[in-house]
Amino acid sequence: MTYLTKPKLHHPSLHKNKVGYTRRDYEGAVSTLCAGCGHDSISAAIIQAAWELDIEPHRVAKLSGIGCSSKTPTYFLGNSHGFNTVHGRMPSVLTGANLANRDLIYLGVSGDGDSASIGLGQFAHAMRRGVNMLYILENNGVYGLTKGQFSATADAGSKSKRGAVNTDTAIDTVSLALLMGATFVARSFSGDKQQLVPLIKAAIAHDGAAFIDVISPCVAFNNHPGSTKSYDYVREHNEAVNRLDFWPSREAITVDYQEGGVIEVPQHDGSILKLRKLEADYDPSNKINAITHIATAAAEGEFLTGLLYLDPNAEDLHAHFKTSAMPLNQLGVKELCPGSEMLDKINASLR
Amino acid sequence: MAKRIEAVNDFVVKFANVNGSGSASANELFAKSFLRMGIPVSPRNIFPSNIQGLPTWYEVRVTERGWLGRRGGVDLMVAMNPQTWDQDIAEVEPGGYVFYDDTRPLPASKFRPDVNVIGMPLTEICNTNYVDARERQLFKNIIYVGALAALLGIEPEVVAELIGEQYKGKEKLLMPNVKAFHMGFDYARERLKDALGLKVQRSEAVGDSIFIDGNAAAALGCVYGGATVCAWYPITPSSSLAEAFQRYCSRLRIDESGRNNYAIVQAEDELASIGMVIGAGWNGARAFTATSGPGVSLMTEFIGMAYFAEIPATIINVQRGGPSTGMPTRTQQSDVLACAYASHGDTKHVLLFPEDPKECFEFAAQALDLADRLQTPVFVMTDLDIGMNQRLCKPLEWDDARSYDRGKVMTRDELEAGKDFGRYLDVDGDGIPFRTLPGTHPKRGAYFTRGTTKDRYARYSEAGPDYVDNMRRLQKKFETAKSMVPKPLLDASARPARFGAIYYGSTSPAMHEALEALATTGISINALRVRAFPFQDEIADFVASHSKVFVIEQNRDAQLKTLLVNDAGINPANLISVLHYDGTPITARFITNEISQIVRTLNVRPIKKDKAA
Q1: Which residues have CB under 8 Å from A309's CB, separation 6+?
Q2: Is it true that domain B212-393 has CATH number 3.40.50.970?
Q3: Using the 8-state DSSP alphabet, how is residue A28 labeled?
Q4: Which CATH architecture describes the domain B489-601?
Q5: I need a surface site. Which of B22, B134, B224, B432 has the fewest CB within 10 A?
Q6: B contacts of A78 (beta carbons < 8 Å)
Q7: Does B7-199 carry CATH code 3.40.920.10?
Q8: pLDDT digits (tens, 9 = 90+) for B518-547
Q9: Taking all residues of chain A, what is their mean pLDDT, rounded to a whole number?
């Protein structure tokens, strides 16, 4: 929390990015989560991705719901405005914020209780509206802050720390996001930074609703044998479908990949996603194919990670609404008020 | 032969129809024709929560004096719905009239000896002239409007003009409607001569007034007040407000490049709609939602958060009959307490009480200013009676010199200059802190917004003193709001009065009429129209200067009275409630009768007419 202070001195040789910030400028307050919490690794990945993308920290708005995951925005991007909203309702608040100012980058952080239980509706609707955001779901299958109850993403048959066995069917958030119309859907693992950082970068560049479900083991309540969200279990059953590299622009492509093994996906903003295929027949531009693969893997007790689906021609809510190029929160009385002369005309039409 | 009510420009006509039969536009045409003749009129839709088949009524009060409240009683019943025949006939005043379709004769037992009957074979006329079933139905409505025009003396040119406006650009529909109108008009003129003792004659009483429903006026207020984000969820009786906002924006809010200077989201529920409003408000756009009681119930958690985290939000509550689903298509003022104290924990919210569409316009625009200035949710407490009925009111006004009050928003330059920013720091002593908008400054002014307790610099804190400090400041802010919200308006009796009356919102027109009626019976009352919460000191002073004060409300539990006792420190012994809550709009007759009776039981009889009660 805020009574814990971080040393403000930075090493003078710290490398600066294109907008003049060191990696440490993207940090936040010291985390108060448990040592070894997967969520802290995700925060670190967000910091890394934002720094590498040369984003000015104050141009990001970070919003969250309630729960351990939703506390994390305090721990990264300390110069960004943050909003810890109410339980399960981050998507609506973020949608409103996004409508008010289309020029900022919106990062929504949520957990499995927040998104799959209390906030399932808002999660689904934010995806189907195409709100331009990165929605990160830090998924540990358990309620941490209230000490270990199952969440709706806990697998049937998974065992709680106290020994109870979950009998409810798990909600698969990536499948749901796909069905709801998310145009960028990925799954990753908090322990795989190499995979996660490029996914976050690509998701931020994506012009639409981007969803990343990050399996993030809870060391306090869900890291025991019998849990399907423990570090050991996830490492064993994680099957990556591709490796992603992200280039901010076409010119920057320098790395060679072996012919045939790479898919290039140009984005709206000129950036390029390069996908190194790990599974021969996995095509992330095919939604039906993606849904089938996810379901097949799940039936075998595995879960796919990587970029599972991408619609490079995605449009966001502002495009659907044809909103002005100028952010709505910058419009003044001149642009917004039709004036007394028009009101006289309106009055005349009401007689 | 029954006696006949004879009246000029002062009577009530009620249409009993079947929902979905196309009667609404014909009835509206009827109502508007009086306005075009300069005679004030006050129509009300009394409709079911249904799309087709259930009974629906449309009541038109024609009133030279401009009494726009519901009068009570019916002088002419246009009985077009066999389902409700008995109750419709029972409602007619002695000496009144029933106009009905006598294609099939009804037994004498179906009528009242003291009610005059005017029969016209509407079905037969339609069957003779039209083949298509839908046409038969639709034109039947226009035919009876024609007949009534002839019976009442409405100028046919006026109706033809209105039909012309209604079907402008749809010429195919224009002529058949005019023809149907004349079919009815000519029939009644020739065969129903002098059947009706109610007449109209041209007047100048309408003046420059306009005819608009409160929801459309509130929507226009949001357009003029600078709202750019509207998030809503359909719920009667508020849906037409958001739809009107959409309609006006699509005309008035398009920029040079053809893009929209607004965004409207039909959300998945009221939780999401208020969440979006709060997100937009947090990020510096003016945002509002329109809803009704059940929506407010769902929004309550968020409203408490916006209060505590201090985020502007405008909520227009078009009240209906509660609790639960209650009476979705009936009117009440029963959300006063639910809105004043919405949320768990200690919260209080600003409420504005518009009396008519004109104030819906003004208060909607003002609410957006107040929400920004006070950084808190602001409710505009309208209701179905104002919101969904077209009402005659003074023309809407806007001062072009007016700018938007965006409240205390610290700018990039101020931050750059090193001005101290504490998100919850009371720098001016009014309880209102400065805020910053996301993206303002690279290094300064960022803070974390949360529903948890924090200190003056927005740092998370559960320390008791920090909590108390913050809650006291919020209380001070609410005190500051008193000087910003609309003041109560006094309607002083012409003669010295011991009694006072407090009323608000849609009760207004009925109250004005009741005050005059009471005065003529020797009961003089000073009336104060409360227009906002928090209550200004004038309200307590008003109560203190009268021996008894009537509080007139449209709810069962005397909610405003509770609020007056609770928040303005008024002694409940000085207040007498007059409560009307059956879902119909309160009438002058009801208020007059109630107050007269109470005054009698208080043994305060006016001995002579010229002596004050």
Answers
A1: A178, A182, A183, A184, A185, A284, A285, A287, A290
A2: yes
A3: -
A4: 3-Layer(aba) Sandwich (3.40)
A5: B134
A6: 446
A7: yes
A8: 999 999 999 999 999 999 999 999 999 999
A9: 89
Quick one: average pLDDT of B89-101?
A: 97
Q: Which of B359, B316, B339, B327 has its CA nearest to residue B507?
A: B359
Q: Considering CB atoms only, which of A83, A121, A338 is closest to B252?
A: A338
> Residue B290 — φ and ψ, nearest 5°?
-120, 135
Count chain A–chain B contacts defined by CB atoms under 8 A. Answer: 232
Query: pLDDT tens across B68-83, in order?
Result: 999 989 999 999 999 9
Whether B66 has a pLDDT exceeding 90, the answer reads: yes
Judging contacts by C-beta atoms under 8 Å, the chain A residues touching residue B395 are 344, 347
Looking at residues A155-177, what average pLDDT do you find?
A: 93
Residues of each domain in chain B carrying CATH 3.40.50.970: 212-393
Shortest distance between the Cα of B310 and any Cα of chain A, in A, equals: 12
Query: Which chain B residues have a beta carbon less than 8 Å from that of A331?
Result: 226, 228, 261
- Domain housing A204: 23-325
Residue to test with chain B: of A19, A26, A75, A93, most B Cβ within 10 A: A93
Indicate yes or no: CB of B267 within 8 angstroms of CB of A58: no
Cβ distance of B271 and A2 shorter than 8 Å? no
Mean pLDDT of the A137-158 span: 92
Selecting from B275, B276, B284 the residue whose C-beta is nearest the C-beta of A101 gives: B284
**Res A258: pLDDT:** 47
Total domains in chain A come to 1
CA B140 remoteness from chain centre: 31
Residue A238 lies in a domain: yes
What is the mean pLDDT of the segment spanning B320-334?
96
> In the prediction, which pLDDT does B52 show?
83
Residues 71-100 on A with a CB inside 8 Å of B are: 73-74, 78-86, 89, 91-100
Of B208, B226, B448, the CB nearest to A336: B226
Top-confidence residue, A171 or A258: A171
**Residue A38 pLDDT more than 80?**
yes
Measured distance CA(B436)–CA(B410) in Å, rounded:
5
- The 10 Å CB-count burial string (b at 16+, else e) for B243-273 is bbbeebbeebbeeeeeebbbbbbebbbbbbb
Measure A43 CA to nearest chain B CA, in Å.
16
Residue A332 lies in a domain: no
What is the ipTM score, two decimals? 0.95
**pLDDT category, B606, cuts 50, 70, 90?**
low
- A134 and A210 Cβ atoms separated by less than 8 Å: yes
The CATH number covering residue A127 comes to 3.40.50.970
Question: And the tokens for A12?
Answer: 């003078």
At B20 the pLDDT is: 85
